[in-house]
Q: What sequence folds into this?
């Protein structure tokens, strides 16, 4: 059995990652999925969260939001609405987005779309977490 699999992460704008990995974690709709070479085939929805994968002893991190993942024994393809490497994240913008979402959730305004505000908060928090990973 091989000890790696091919990995591609694609957004509507570009190919973000084309690499090999020995293991990875994907944020699924109902929790994180751990993927190893030889994994059983599956298709799953990708939620807002952090993708991490290991290659040559180094762990890579990406912030991802919404999409689908196809997992095959030797190949993982993720089609995401957004996927960002730590160096591509605008930390100030993410902090402002987090503040706006928190204010909306605290406002008590009956016209606030709480699901959308909560999603924006989760995305901003993920982006900030991934941005801090580049310093480790």
A:
């Amino acid at each position: 059995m091989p000890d790696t699999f091919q990995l591609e992460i694609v957004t509507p704008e570009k190919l973000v990652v084309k690499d090999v990995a020995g293991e990875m974690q994907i944020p699924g709709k109902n929790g994180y999925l751990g993927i190893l070479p030889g994994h059983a085939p599956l298709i799953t929805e990708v939620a807002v969260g952090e993708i991490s994968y290991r290659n040559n002893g180094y762990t890579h991190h990406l912030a991802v939001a919404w999409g689908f993942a196809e997992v095959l024994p030797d190949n993982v393809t993720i089609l995401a609405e957004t996927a960002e490497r730590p160096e591509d994240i605008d930390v100030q913008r993410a902090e402002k987005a987090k503040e706006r979402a928190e204010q909306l959730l605290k406002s008590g305004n009956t016209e606030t779309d709480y699901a959308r505000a909560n999603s924006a908060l989760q995305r901003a928090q993920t982006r900030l977490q991934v941005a801090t990973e580049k310093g480790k």
User: Anything to note?
Assistant: The chain has two domains: 5-85, 87-133.
